[in-house]
Amino acid sequence: MYQLYDYITSGNGYKVALLLHQLNLPFRYHETDILAGATQTPDFLALNPNGKIPVLVTPEKAVLWESNAILLHLAEGTAYLPVAPAARFEVYRWLFWEQYSHEPYIATSRFWLHHPDAARFQEKIAERRPGGLKALKLMDDHLAARAYFAGDTYSVADIALYAYTHKADEGGFVLDDYPHVQAWLARVANQPRHLTIEEKTKFRD
Ligand SMILES: N[C@@H](CCC(=O)N[C@@H](CS)C(=O)NCC(=O)O)C(=O)O
Question: Is the full-model pTM beyond 0.90?
């Protein structure tokens, strides 16, 4: 069985749990408390020297880390990763974009706002706000003419972007001004075998 090292509120971990569930690949969820330093222990660093969740250990004992690379690996040969080069390029593009132009603004703001020491991060949250607004506008414009991010069908690009966008309000980003993003969020949530972020922990050890 797959073993997923993850943290309860992590969208990066949720991406992997969601795809595993949609592919019908059973997994065990191992809660890894990032606030208590569980990603910095010698045992964890032996799994991921970068000291971050998610880490996925395959049934063959391969150790995988970096959420979007894990998505691509699991999706190979499935309907969640298009074969046509142009559509595949779109998937790669949105996965890289998510990590550089979306997650550092929207996910980090959410993390800091809910941190036990949130007051310490107010300045950083304010600094990241324009980048988050820019990301949401770009997504909304892209989705005005399309149902999904890459090609015509739901793919790992949608999974990667859904993870933190559907919780953007928890980072102070109200989605009212982004109707196409809202409609897309509903389409993603209606996919077969959807799993909510809260539900991922039901597979815990
Ligand atoms: N680029 C990485 C980011 C992973 C990441 O930032 N993980 C956070 C939780 S979402 C973490 O483990 N933080 C703990 C730490 O840095 O010690 C990925 O997509 O997997």
Answer: yes
